[in-house]
Amino acid sequence: MTDKKAHLTVDGLDAAIELPIYNSSTGPDVIDVTSITKNGFFTFDPGFMSTASCESKITFIDGDKGILLHRGYPIDQLADHSDYLETCYLLLNGELPNDTQKQEFTNAVKNHSAVDPSVAALIKTFKRDAHPMAILCSAVAALAAVYNEGLDITKEEDRKITAHRLIGQMPTLAAMVYKHSQGEEFIAPDSTLGYAENYLNMTFGKAGQAPKVSQVLAKAMDRIFILHADHEQNASTSTVRLSGSSGTNPFAAIAAGIATLWGPAHGGANEAVLKMLEEIGSVDNIDKFVAKAKDKNDPFRLMGFGHRVYKNFDPRAKVMKQTCDEVLAELGLENDPLLAIAKRLEKIALEDEYFIQKKLYPNVDFYSGIIMKAIGIPTEMFTVIFATGRAVGWYAHWDEMVSSAYKIGRPRQLYTGSVQRDYPSK
Length: 426
Ligand code: ACO
Prior knowledge:
By secondary structure, the protein is mainly alpha-helical. Helix content is 50%, strand content 5%. Strand 1 (5-8) and strand 2 (17-22) form a beta hairpin. The chain is globular and about 75 Å long. The structure holds acetyl coenzyme *A (ACO). Acetyl coenzyme *A is lined by residues 266, 269, 293, 301-308, 358, 360, 363-365.
C-alpha cells in the first residue's frame, strides 16, 4: 500500500470516500474500491477495461511500449534463449530452473503425457468433422473425471502433479483430435523426443514408423508454444480464475478457459487470418481488399492487424516473423501463392499511411497462422495449438490464486429491470 489515497466525492455525501492505493512493481497503481459498498455503491466497468481483478506476479504487459514480460523476462529473450518447458517452469515457479530442476521437470511432464484410455475413447465418439476446439474442450473436461478422487487442491504436491499432467497431456490430446479428424490411428507419446517434436510426431507420424521430425519445424512449433504461453488477465485466463474460484476441479476450470479461447475475438483470430488470405485469393486482389479495410462504410478489417493492448508493435509478432521466414525457407515454400499474398499484404499495410497512422501492425496471429499453414496444420486446428501453449498460463494463474487467500468471484451489476411487482391475480 502507498501513502497516497484517492478521495471520491459523491453528490449528496457529506464526506469524500477515502480509498487506499496499492503500488505495482511496474505499470499502473490500483485504487482499492472495495469499501465503497459500505456507502451503497458498486463500480461499473463493462468489459473490465479499468478493473484489476487480482494481484499477480506472473506476467506484465505494457501495450504502448510493446513490452511483454514473464516473471520479469522479456518474451523475445525467452523465445531466443529458452524453450517451452523451461518457460513453463518459469511461469509456474517464478524462477528459471537450474539444470537438475529442468531435467526433473521435463521428466515429470513426459511421464504424465499418456492420456487415459477413457478419454481416448471419448474423442473417438465425436463426428470426424466436429470442430477440434469442441473436442478438445470436452476431452480436457473429461480429465476432471480421471483426476478427481483424492485430488486435494490445497496441497502443493497435488497441484504440482496436476500441472505435470496438464502440460504433459495437452499436446497428446491436440494430436489425438487431429488424428481423429483424419480417421487415422493415434500415435503414443515418445519420451525420447522434445516437447514440440513429440507433438509434431504424434500429429504427422504414422503408426509403426520411426519418428522423423524436422528440427527447424520443431523449433518453430516450440516458439509458437512459448509465444502463446501466457498473456496476463485476458478473457480465457480470467475465466479460469473465476471458474476456479469456486474450488472446482482444475481440469474443469481449464476446460472453461478453452471454451472462452475458441471465440473469434480471442484465440480464433489466427483461423480468421487464413480464411481472409484464401478470400483474397490472388496478389492482384490485395489493393481491393486494402481499400475495403480502409473504407469507413465497409465492416471488413484486415485480420491479423491491430491489437487491443499493443499499440506500437506486438513483441511476439517480431519473433514470429523471423520464425516464419525460417520455416518457409526450410519447406521451400517461399513461392507458395497463399504465402505470397500474406507477404505482399504485410508489405503494403506496413507502408500504407492509414495503417501507420492508426498504429495497425501485424500481430502474432498473422505470422503464426502462416507458419502453421506451412507446417501442414489445418486451419481449424490453429486455436487448438494456441490452447496447448496457453495451458501453462491458465494453470499458473489458477495455481497463484488457489495458493493464496482468495474469494469466490462474484461481480455485481447495475440493475435496470423491473422493480418488485405482484403476480397478476387471475
Ligand atoms: N483493419 C482495418 N482497420 C482497422 C483494423 C484492421 N485490422 N483494426 C482497427 N482498425 C481501425 C478501426 O476501423 C478504427 O478506425 P477509426 O478510428 O477510423 O474508427 C481504428 O483502427 C481503431 O480500431 P478499434 O477497433 O477501436 O481498435 P481496438 O483496439 O478496439 O481493436 C482489434 C483491436 C480488435 C484487434 C482490431 O485491430 C481488429 O479487429 N483486428 C483484426 C482482428 C485480429 O487480428 N485480432 C487478433 C488480435 S491478436 C490476439 O487476440 C492474440
